Model the fold of this input.
Amino acid sequence: MSSKGCILATGGTGYVGSHTVLELIEAGYDTVVVDNLSNSTLESLNRVEELTGVKVPAYTIDLLDKEGLRKIFSKHKITCVMHFAGFKAVGRSVHIPLQYFRNNLGGTINLLEVMDEFKVYNMIFSSSATVYGEPEYLPFDEKHKTGGCTNPYGKTKFFIEEMMKDLFAAAPQWNIVLLRYFNPIGAHKSGRLGESPIGKPHNLMPNISKVAAKELECVSVFGDDFDTKDGTGVRDYTHVVDLAKGHVAALAVIDKKWGLKIYNLGTGKAYSVLEMIKAFEKASGVNVPYKIAPRRAGDLPTFWSDVSLVKKELGWVADKGLDEMCEDIWRWQKMNPGGYPGCSNGIQDMSS
Ligand code: UD1
Done:
């Protein structure tokens, strides 16, 4: 085992998880993955292995299977858990809220209990900017109030944060980092790792890249009458490799035993939907047709991050700009037209 420690990545075959496993290996950590493969495939880890030359032990286990989890903690000397696993489709969460609560909250409770049994008190959690709800001011800093999320998916992120805060209050031997992501996009430079949604993509960038690749006809722009620079929604899009590096940086909190810490992982910059389409056209050299569609329920007009705290305390800055994000997505799209093998299944909408 390397001297830096062994990180268990739940959901480690997924989009953010797999990019982070790769960065962890490159930073000198051992990694172990558990994943139920409900929205991903082991192919992402094959590719991590191909890029790093390191084989990652991976277990197809659901976090609701507590006994299965115990076996992994018995087998590997885990020093820290990075908890990426969770259902994440906003729209679907509205239709099947109990499944979202059972899976995301139930899985997290099992994981924390097993960690406690094995005296592993270090946790880095994939949270989301969605916990901030309606902005009282912008950009969001970590002191902004949380809660008031409009959908069950967002609520699971908020409730898990609250659970972890209460756990830390009761048991201060824990070190817990809550990382609030702002719109992860992009792909690994190699074109071998990227976002591979099963079924019809819901998020903006996979839609844009599939339209550019002519897998979909045109992008529906959800609303052009918001109070924003051009009427379309404005977000803080962050390169997934920068996010992955943010997780490695967050291990400083564990090493220094700083207790519970919360950080935004974003760029501090904000772009509209139309700006994203234009940037993608520039990066790909391909025309991306779009049409204006009605607003999507629950969408906020604008939000972006204040990233001064994470810069000050962890020295982390997202240094990849918009052009690079779009170029990397386009490379991934061209090299993997249907996503990972076994993930492609055409464009079927699994959301309802
Ligand atoms: C959503 C979730 C967020 C989650 C993120 C990534 C909420 C409110 N947001 O963010 O928690 O972390 O997904 O999974 O829960 N858009 C279009 N056409 C499309 C798709 C999107 O115009 O086909 C627009 C949206 O209206 C929005 C922007 O593009 O203005 C970004 O949307 P999307 O990529 O879905 O991310 P968010 O909704 O910001």
Observations:
- The chain has eleven helices and 13 strands.
- The chain has a mean pLDDT of 95.
- The pocket of uridine-diphosphate-N-acetylglucosamine is lined by residues 88, 90, 128, 130, 151, 153-154, 183, 202-204, 207, 219-222, 233, 235, 273, 296, 298-299 (CB under 6 Å).
